[in-house]
Amino acid sequence: MSVSTATTTTVTSLNNNLDYNFRIAAVNAVGTGPSSQLDTDVTLQSIPYVSPLDDDLPFQTPGSAEFIDADTGIDVEVEETVGDNGLKFAGLDDFALQILLKEGNGRVDSGTKSITISPSGTAEANGLGFLPGSIVEVWIFSDPRLLGTTTVLDDGSFSVSLVIPIDLEVGPYTIQVNGRLANGRERSSNIGITVSEITVSEQRLPSTGTSSHALSFTIIGLALGANLVLLASRRRPLRLHCDH
């Protein structure tokens, strides 16, 4: 708590993707009066994450991804899976993230492990393992635009709908998802995509029987024995690095 005669003040050393609570009270020679009714959460102004190692705006080519511990600027190893409706990522720290296409708004290329979304097309970002009550923001680069923001639920999950700006020119872009994990570390995820017009023949076919919100692979128990069949998409280890 600080005391000042000024009508404004600057608060420093705050953390991104968290809400803060402020109260104001008057102080004079008699003592301190009651706190004001400004007992509300204050969300910091949204800004995208830029790596302190190179100070450049993030750029990932379609089919590539980068995951950074934003508190240190160090890359984090994350495993990538390509599904029929988008990209899925999982880390050893219980981190999970998906970028999923809405029906008729894009396509998935399993060969290049990339997704294409049409201008004005819609997608969904969802995840698990985030700090309950914290804020998740989704940006698109190169010219930073905030696509969506949401609050993490009590179970550490979030889901936010994204609309690609209709005025974006076709070409490669980077989607950045920023949020604070359950362990308190801030995670910045940069995923390369392509923005392009989609023909009817290229549109993603509707999936059958699988919710777009599912963050786990589908496991079907077999009646005979204790065998399990793990239905999963092609997987590849994703080792990431920063250029110095």
What would you say this structure looks like, in words?
This protein has a domain at 65-205 and 216-236: Immunoglobulin-like. The chain is built from no helices and 18 strands. It has strands at residues 19-22, 40-43, 65-69, 74-75, 78-83, 86-91, 96-101, 106-109, 114-117, 122-128, 135-141, 145-151, 158-163, 171-180, 186-195, 218-221, 228-231, 235-236. Strands 3, 4, 8, 9, 11, 12, 14 and 15 form an 8-stranded mixed β-sheet that branches. Strands 13-10-7-6-5-18 form a 6-stranded antiparallel β-sheet, with no helix packed on it. The protein is elongated, with a radius of gyration of 21 Å. The two termini are 41 Å apart.
Offer a quick outline of the entry.
The chain is mainly β and 244 residues long. It is built from no helices and 18 strands.
